[in-house]
Design a protein that fits this description.
By secondary structure, this protein is of the alpha/beta class. It folds into 2 domains: 221 residues, Rossmann fold; 68 residues, Alpha-Beta Plaits (2-Layer Sandwich). The strands form 3 sheets. The chain has a 6-stranded mixed sheet with strand order 7-8-9-4-10-11, sandwiched between helices. Strands 1, 2, 3, 5 and 6 form a 5-stranded antiparallel sheet that branches. It has a 4-stranded antiparallel sheet with strand order 13-14-12-15, covered by helices on one side. α3 packs across α4 and α4 packs across α5. It binds adenosine-5'-diphosphate and magnesium ion. The site of adenosine-5'-diphosphate (ADP) has 10 residues, from α1.
Length: 310
């Protein structure tokens, strides 16, 4: 399947500084990609290159197969962009601002009204259509910016730090909104953020950028294991009855580092995915296995690991 967003050795240098360094991204249709990294990592620069708004020094950026540098108009038609600092005509109403965008897209007056109404409804701003944007909170402006990109029904949306400067309640609403729109409109979303715990909630895949380099990338559920591969697995076991004999036989399996009791669960830390060996040891010792699962490490652990190495 052709990825919606793809970069091949994408690089940007300013003078002597390489701010994006041979980036290879692949984001599939329907993904909500958390583009993570501290301030100055190169997230915004990458987004601008993908949108055809900044030229790469080398490498290629593509949206739905279109080269962002050579076919910027096609790319812009397919992409919605909410920049870090959203800009509206502050003394005009929400409805007027959106209608302005819709007209720029060349829609008929009838379609303009329809799309503006729909977009404001989706982001929950229908009640304030007639209010001037200057009266809006930052969260409301962010939502208006999302409504603004919905007007042209993009295949992919780039949201640069959409939760920055919003209060916790607003962040929750914003993330819920993004997840809902992505699903309902089958829109691929690239969400940049330096606030990891927030993003984790709605993303199915993430990339962590540090000093222009992608240090980790992948599906959230696979990442923990790969990143800590060869030593950081935890198997959670539930037995019908936990006996010290069973605990001892699990402890003796090669690769098991430790066994801990937690309520009626056994937590086995090990060097590899030892589920088959553990299951066999339990059965061989007449234990009754109720369930067993392997835990992957939280994204936060991964993020902290790379932050401390950066
Ligand atoms: N137009 C520019 N000229 C020179 N340096 C820039 C320019 N734009 C960005 N940079 C530098 O590139 C680096 C990455 O910036 P940016 O992409 O904005 O990071 P992020 O969005 O992850 O915070 C920073 O060190 C920034 O100072
Ligand atoms: Mg930025």
């Amino acid at each position: 399947m052709r990825p919606v967003v793809e970069t091949v050795d994408l690089t940007k240098t300013y003078g002597n500084a390489t701010v994006v360094d041979k980036l290879n991204l692949r984001i599939e249709e329907g993904d909500i990609f958390g583009f993570l990294g501290p301030n100055g990592a190169g997230k915004t620069t990458t987004i601008l290159m993908l949108l055809g708004l900044t030229e790469p020094t080398s490498g290629v950026a593509r949206i739905c197969g279109y080269n962002s540098t050579r076919e910027p108009l096609k790319v812009k038609r397919l992409s919605g962009y909410v920049p870090e600092k959203v800009g509206f005509y502050e003394d005009l109403t929400a409805a007027y601002n959106l209608a302005y965008t819709a007209r720029l897209n060349g829609f008929s007056e009838e379609l303009v009204m329809k799309r503006v109404g729909e977009a404001l409804d989706v982001v929950g701003l229908s009640e304030v259509v007639g209010q001037r944007v200057q009266e809006f909170s930052r969260g409301m402006k962010q939502r208006l910016a999302i409504a603004d990109i919905l007007i042209k029904m993009p295949k992919v949306a780039f949201l640069d730090e959409p939760t920055a400067g919003i209060d916790p309640e607003g962040v929750k609403e914003m993330l819920g909104l993004i997840a809902r729109i992505a699903k309902e409109r089958k829109m691929t979303v690239i969400l940049s953020s330096h606030q990891l715990p927030q993003v984790q909630q709605i993303c199915n895949c993430v990339g962590i950028l540090i000093k222009g380099r992608m240090v980790v990338e992948g599906k959230l559920d696979q990442l923990g294991r790969e990143t800590f591969g060869g030593g950081r697995f935890r198997v959670e076991i539930q037995l019908a009855e936990t006996t010290s004999a069973l605990v001892n036989c699990i402890k003796q399996i090669k690769g098991v580092i430790g066994v801990e009791r937690s309520g009626d669960l056994l937590l086995v830390s090990c060097q590899a995915d030892l589920r088959p060996q553990i299951a066999k040891a339990i059965v061989d010792n007449n234990g009754l296995l109720v369930q067993m699962k392997i835990q992957s490490y939280a994204l936060e652990d991964i993020y902290m690991k790379y932050f401390s190495e950066a």
